[in-house]
Amino acid sequence: MASKRKATQGAVKASRMSRISTPGSVTPRRIESDYSHGPSGLPDQRNTIIAQNVQKLDISSFPYMLSPGIIDSASEYFQPGQKRDLTALKLKPDHHNRPLWIDGWGKLTLENFHPLAPRVQDFLTTIAEPTSRPAFLHEYRLTTHSLYAAVSVGLNPKDIIRTLKLFLKNEMPPNVIAYITHCGKSYGKVKIVLKSNKYFVETADPAVLQMLLKDPEIGPCRVQNAEEITTSVSTMAGLAIAGTKDAADMRVAERVEDQVERNSRVEEVYYAALGEDDDEDDVQDALHAFQIEDEKVGTVAQRCLALLYPALQEYDFRNDYINANLEIDLRPATQIRPYQEQGLSKMFGNGRAKSGIIVLPCGAGKTLVGVTAACTIKKGVVVLATSNMSAIQWKNEFVKWSSINPDNIAIFSSDCKSLFTGNSGIIITTYSMATNSRERAHESANMIKFLQSREWGLMLLDEVHVVPAEMFRSVIGTIKSHAKLGLTATLLREDDKIEDLNFLIGPKLYEANWMELSQQGHIATVQCAEVWCPMSTEFYEEYMKANARNRSLFCVMNPSKFQACQYLINYHENRGDKIIVFSDSVYALEAYARKLMRPYLYGGTGNAERQEILDLFRNSQHCNTLFLSKIGDTSLDLPEATCLIQISSQYGSRRQEAQRLGRILRAKRRSEEGFNAFFYSLVSKDTVEMVFSSRRQAFLADQGYAFKVITHFKNIEKTPDLAFATPEARHELLQKVIAELESKSWKQEEERESAALLADGNLFYGPDGKPSRTAVSGAGDRSAKKIVKRKSGPHSDFFRSLRRENERRKKLA
Hints:
Belongs to the helicase family. RAD25/XPB subfamily. Keywords: ATP-binding, DNA damage, DNA repair, DNA-binding, Helicase, Hydrolase, Isomerase, Nucleotide-binding, Nucleus. It is found in: Nucleus. Its EC number is 5.6.2.4. This protein is an alpha/beta fold. Among the domains are: 2-27 and 85-186, no CATH class; 321-519, 3-Layer(aba) Sandwich (Rossmann fold), CATH 3.40.50; 526-743, P-loop containing nucleotide triphosphate hydrolases (Rossmann fold), CATH 3.40.50.300. The protein contains 32 helices and 24 strands. Helix 5 (157-167) packs antiparallel against helix 6 (174-186) and helix 20 (537-545) runs antiparallel to helix 21 (548-556). The chain starts with a helix and ends with a helix.
């Protein structure tokens, strides 16, 4: 097997950048008020304002106008329309000492093999959107949103331009300089801050302050008789992010607090001198502010964007004396990793909590980042999870990593409705429960009233890429939170609504490099392969006759795919791997599992049996393979898994491909020398699966993963008890598939799966294979439970045989 993989037939699918694979830009500020009580999303008028003003700040408004430096027969293929003519941008004499290229359309290319590349990477991820990061060349793009994020963490246009010029091989285009300068005039100039439970509009520019006060729409929003306030700019002084070395040093310092007080005058002189010499960031500039009415926050934010001054929102939590403090800190043994600290430092860079998004691969510790943010702010926390299972995992992670009293953690789901006991605490719920717009039961109505009647210090949004659906805008508006932190591994949506996050949550604060974390051992190194499974003649004939919906069943029930799956399971079980086999088709999932005598889980599996199977997979050497439906795509923690085989999937979903790869990125054995996890995608050759597979892999290719193509396994025909090895067996399988399509019973299984996902609060999928609108709109969990009729006994042949064996042993005993 190993030697065959090295000599696979076909070419390696090179990592590439394409329009399909480029993650959407994520940044400028939400326009809807965090505290608006309106149940609906942004009105059309506001959406129009957003689109018009974001366009004015886009690089397309600053066209590249330089004439070609060289004109020849090939010039027509590189002219401005093609965005490839860079001949007017001269190379610098010492260009070989610099690692970065730029064109006139905001595209940056980094030579990752250059010695100076590590010094440039963090800067580029701060000011630009990563679009492709394979091994040797990284591509980034300057966007409206990325520059907004850069300003939000304290960079100014002069710093950005100066640093780019320092590392660029070629001259910087004048239009790009103008674009960055123009954005800098607007971004970061205005902030809306909630301080002492009052809203203030802040700016360091007196001219901007006067312009806002004189504006016919913003002026009336000012609180009458409230004076203008001039304060100093907040800094990181005195703030340490939980779990870092600074936090440990502060704990040591607190032990000698009495001695410090006795020598306060000497210490003040000492630290003042130290601040002048060593910390220029603590220089305090004047900051002007005026108070606005609470209900006018949305109006002010909308008007600021119309004036081309998009407003940042920050939470001065250290000066919030109204909301009760939460007794929470990281456990002494908990130490966050450098990249986690780097992401959090972008959130707390100026001593306040900025709302935004942190993007980390699956298995890289997103939950710990959220827990650490909560431990730093130390105010009430509301967590929005994707499912009931995910909500329980969040509670377990808070208890595991922090000193929080478990009684101060409440869960609001279809299965559990509890309240915390103290004045402040943590409440964990699901998106579907929080957005339910229908009539609620009495207990649920009280819970949602409790959620909406309090002020929360921090809102954690898990898998934040699901938020932009229209129904979720009400969550942002009706649950009052001072700061919002979105967490995700895949900032992707197939409906291209990812940019809505710019106005709902905030800028992308940090995005980790998958390959870099893999090389450092924080996530597993993965070998990816696409296995082409040829379809027999009679199967292919029926495939061509079927309609588009039914063709997927012929693809997944392909006898060659059965055989490839069996071969890979045998190979990896023999080498000691734990294997997950994914199938979106419940009918195929059951057929494969029964044929190969392995346990399986899907939406219709009872909770008791589900837990029994998961425990067996985690702890038993006799259960090394588990078949999973799409319920395992998210919120399922199986660090024992080291190999993943995908036999069917959700069309061309890039998000699902990345989420499934994430199931093996956290493998426990990742730190072993020479360890590799394995990801196989089984594809029926010459079918629509080939097209979908190429689309699905695009995002992972841009992260640096390369998919090898395997067309044949050596000696597969010698596999013991090979499935469907005879023409008769293949013909019998085909007749079963045809009969199944005619009876349409497989569709009933799909409906049960979708209903079970809905009952669990999982909002990713609906009966049409897309995010469930029913779940999003909050259709009652009770109706979903009525649909799901679960069998009392185990459905898996594996467990039936295990039960029979146990009963036989009891009789013999």
